[in-house]
Design brief:
With 199 residues, this protein is of the alpha+beta class. It has two domains: 2-52, no CATH class; 61-190, no CATH class. It contains five helices and nine strands; from the N terminus they run E-E-E-E-E-H-E-E-H-E-E-H-H-H. The protein has helices at residues 61-82, 95-109, 129-159, 162-165, 179-190; strands spanning 2-7, 13-19, 31-32, 43-45, 50-52, 84-86, 89-91, 114-117, 125-128. The strands form four sheets. A three-stranded antiparallel beta sheet has the order 2-1-3, with no helix packed on it. The chain has a two-stranded antiparallel sheet with strand order 4-5. A two-stranded antiparallel sheet has the order 6-7. The radius of gyration is 31 Å and the shape is elongated.
Length: 199
């Protein structure tokens, strides 16, 4: 058996298959043993050879943008969860950590002078208010910075073409934004007493 290629009534590739032709089983007129070129998009048999009449499909830019936003969102969350350093100690900021810090900060605002907490890898201990509140403030600033940066990267994605999307990534130093978006982010953060990027 040999490998053959069938084309439709307009000459366009229809299928490939194995068959044996000869004698009482002649090769049909819509079949050739000439393989089409690879990669193959929309080839047409002209009677002597395959002719490529198409090309690679246009990229689905909307789908690429959605995937890129998912990637950026995951990187933003990871950067936030990695936490902050305050007073030479590291404090993770998972969703649980954020909730716990908010709850303890509220207790201090309501008059409690000490709250139980711990730095990463350390034993829980009483934190006086003046030691704990800088952690809560650093948490808020850290989240604001990364969420603001993530928002600006997403706006960059919204206007980027398919060919540009591959070059967009989450930069921990936050120095990769286009000039107009970087300026807008710096202006916005300055209203809240923060710098324009980088930690």
């Amino acid at each position: 058996m040999d490998y053959y290629f069938r084309f439709d009534e307009n000459g366009y590739f229809a299928e490939d298959f194995y068959a044996s032709y000869g004698g009482e089983n002649p090769q049909p007129p819509d079949v050739t043993d000439v393989p089409p070129p690879q990669p193959m998009y929309k080839v047409r048999w002209d009677g002597e050879r395959w002719v490529e009449t198409g090309g690679p499909p246009e990229p689905d830019t909307d789908a690429l943008r959605r995937a890129k936003k998912d990637e950026i969102g995951a990187a933003c969350n990871a950067a936030i969860y990695a936490g902050v350093e305050v007073g030479g100690r590291s404090y993770s900021l998972t969703i649980y950590d954020q909730t716990e810090i908010d709850k303890l900060a509220k207790l201090i605002e309501d008059g409690m002078t000490h709250v139980p907490y711990h730095a990463d890898g350390e034993l829980c201990r009483p934190y006086p208010a003046d030691e704990f509140m800088p952690i809560a403030e650093a948490k808020d600033a850290h989240i604001l910075l990364h969420r603001t940066y993530c928002n600006h990267v997403n706006r960059w994605i919204d206007r980027a073409g398919a060919g540009e999307l591959g070059g967009i990534h989450y930069d921990p130093a936050m120095r990769n934004l286009p000039v107009d978006l970087a300026a807008n982010m710096a202006s916005l953060l300055s209203m809240f007493g923060q710098g324009g990027g980088g930690e």
